[in-house]
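Project standup — Tuesday

K.O.: blocked on the structure for the chain from last sprint. Re-posting the sequence here as requested.
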Amino acid sequence: MNILTIIEKKRDGKVLAPAEINFFMKNYQNGFIPDYQAAAFLMAIYFQGMDSVETIALTEAIVNSGETLDFSFLGRPVADKHSTGGVGDKTTLILLPMLVACGVTVAKMSGRGLGHTGGTIDKLSCIPGFRTEMSRSQFLEQVRSLGFAITGQSAEMTPADGMLYALRDVTATVDSIPLIASSVMSKKIAAGAKYIILDVKAGSGAFMRDEQLARKLAEEMVAIGNALGRKTVALITAMDQPLGSAVGNHLEVLEAIAALKGEGPSDLTMLSIELGAELLVACGLAHELHEAREKLSASLSNGAALAMFRRFIAAQGGDTSVLAEPQKLGSPAFTAVLRSTQKGVVAGLDARRVGLAAVHLGAGRERKGDSIDLTAGIYLHKKIGDSLEKGDILAELFTSSADKLAIAQEKLVAAYLIGDAPKESCPLILGRVK
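H.V.: unblocked you, prediction finished:
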C-alpha cells in the first residue's frame, strides 16, 4: 500500500477501503506523507466525493489520531450539541441549561468564532473570571458532579483534524461535504457524548447557503453519528437573517440571560426549545416532542434553567452576579445608531452582511488567532416583517474603536432591504434528519 496508488484511486472516482484511509491518516500524521501529496488527496476527495462508508472510515481515523473521552462510568445519558455556525446564534447558552434542568448530562467542547459566525467560548469569555479551558480531569469531574461543563477544544483530541483543516484552508478544499462532516463529527465522537443534536444552518449567514446542500451535510453527519454508536438528530434551520436581536459576544450573553429569564426573542427561544425537545426524546427523557417542549418551557418559567446556568458559571469560576447586574459584563466605549431613511417594511435582512459589519466593529476574527473586542456588536431593533416610519432606529452599533463605526454603518445599511409590504416569512425550521 502506498500513497500514490491511493491518490490515483480516489482521483479516478473509485471507492477507498477503510484500510487505505487509515494508512493515509496515520502516515500523514506521523510525517511520512508530505503536504503536497496530502493536498492532492484532499483535492481528489473534493472533486470525486466519498460514499458513506469512506466518510465514516475517515471520521474514525481522525478520532483515533488522539485522545478520546468516555462517560459510560456515569450510567446516565450524556449529550452534546453542535451548530454549523450562524449570526446571532447563542442557543448553546440557553439550550444546555434547559437540558440539564430536565435531567440530561451535558459535556461540550466548543470553539472560538471565525469570520462572521460567533463562538461559544468567546461568549463565555465575557463573564468575569469564567474559566474557558479545563484539564481532562477537571472536565470529567465537573460533568460527573454538576452534570454540565463546557470547555475549549483540546489539542490532544483529533489532532489530525487540525492538520487536515490547516491544509484544506490553503488548498481551496474546505467546501467538501465529506471533509466537513468528518471534521465536525470526529470532534463530537471523541468528546464522548452518546446523544448528539446538530443545528445545520442554511441561508445567507450560514456556512451552507443552499438548503439542499445543508440537508446533504446534515444527512452525512447523522449517518456518521449513528454508525459510530451515537444517537444523532439534526435540524436544518434558516439563517437568512440573524437569530434573535443581538450580534456580538457581550450582547449575545445579555440576550441569552434574558431568554433564560423567559424574556428572550421568540425565534431564539423557540429554536432552543425545538433543539432540546429532539434531544430529550432521543435520550428517552420524554416520549413525544410535545411532552419534551412542555418540560423545557417549564424549566424557563420556573427558573430551573436559570438556576442551572448560575451553578454552571460558579463551577467554572465565573462571577454569577452578572445575572442580576449585567453591567458587570462591560460596556462598549463608542456607539452609533442606524435609522431608517424611509417609511415601509423590512423586506430583507442579510445575515452575512450583518455578521461582516459586526466583524468590522471588532466582534469577530478574520483569521485564527486574531484578538477580538468582546464588547463590540450590533443590536437589531428591526427585523424582517417589521414596519418602519422614517427616522425609526434600525439598529445600534457598539465598538471600542470609534473609527470603525462609519464603515460598519455602511455595511449594515447594505444588509437591510426596505419595501412597501412584508414578504412571505421563511420558517425557522426547514427540516429534520434522524
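K.O.: great, moving the ticket to review. The chain has 16 helices and 13 strands. The CA atoms of residues 88 and 374 lie 14 Å apart.
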